[in-house]
Amino acid sequence: MRLDDTDRRLLRLLQANPAQPMAALAERAGLAEAGCARRLERLRNAGVLKGRSAVIDWRKLGWEVEVSLRITLDKTDPRAFDEFIAAAREVPEVLEIQTFLGRVDVRLNVIARDLAHYQQIYRERILTLPHIADIEALMHIADIKKGEALPI
């Protein structure tokens, strides 16, 4: 999809404040409210805008530990990826599942309340996932740069 300057301005404004009312967004973008709504609908239909979401700071809710698990699967079974991913989706503490090409097949982002809770999750839920050949754990220390804003 080709974006014009007004589309890019709308996207920048939405990235800066996704919860702003339509009237405020239209005014900041220099559009009539109806025209703004049509453009947003066109961007949604094209798949550029995927929706709105609430961003919850899970640390404020008592989750203190974040671990990235790099997992290599035993790929001798042709169903290994599908079965592993289906089982990993069922672990509530797994926030993200990403697949890769290369030595590492899958990355899981796991949260826990503390280290003892992480150890319990690891032993009872992660190690029981099917088709694991190798796991490397990376404990998250700090976010240096984090954001989804695109340079539009």
Characterize the structure shown.
With 152 residues, the protein is an alpha+beta fold. The protein has 2 domains: 5-45, Winged helix-like DNA-binding domain superfamily/Winged helix DNA-binding domain (Arc Repressor Mutant, subunit A, Orthogonal Bundle); 58-139, Alpha-Beta Plaits (2-Layer Sandwich). 36% of the residues lie in helices and 20% in strands. The protein contains 5 helices and 4 strands. Strands 2-3-1-4 form a 4-stranded antiparallel sheet. β2 and β3 (106-112) form a beta hairpin. The chain is elongated. It starts with a helix and ends in a 13-residue tail after the last strand. The mean pLDDT is 94.
Short description:
The protein has 152 residues and is an alpha+beta fold. It has helices at residues 5-16, 22-29, 33-45, 80-89, 115-126; strands at residues 65-73, 94-99, 106-112, 132-139.
**Spans with pLDDT under 50 lasting ≥5 residues?**
none
Structural class: alpha+beta
Q: N-to-C SSE series?
A: HHHEHEEHE
Report the helical percentage: 25-40%
Describe the largest sheet: 4 strands, antiparallel
User: How many structural domains are formed by the residues?
Assistant: 2
Rg result: 21 Å
Terminal Cα separation, in Å? 14 Å
Order of strands across the widest beta sheet?
2-3-1-4
| Overall CATH class of the largest domain | Alpha Beta
Proportion in β-strands: 15-25%
Q: What general form does the structure show?
A: elongated
| CATH topology-level fold name of the largest domain | Alpha-Beta Plaits
The total of beta strands comes to 4
Q: What's the CATH H-level homologous superfamily of the largest domain?
A: Lrp/AsnC effector binding domain/regulation of amino acid metabolism (RAM) domain
